[in-house]
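DM from R.C. (forwarded with permission)

"hey, sorry to bug you on a friday — could you get me a structure for this? deadline for the figure draft is monday and I only need the backbone to look sensible"
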Amino acid sequence: TRFRELGPKILDLQHRAAKLAAEAKRRGDLRRHELATDVIHKLARLREIH
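My reply, with the result:
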């Protein structure tokens, strides 16, 4: 995969992780919310690199 093509894919993954985080928070699953939030931040860092 070329780096150019990664942008939209990373954004999509961030969007999915945000949905998971919101769902987990709504259910009171703090561990899962924390994990999903961590994924969002890691993906954001990845996007900065590209």
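R.C.: lifesaver. The longest helix spans residues 3-27.
me: no worries. The two ends are 13 Å apart (CA to CA).
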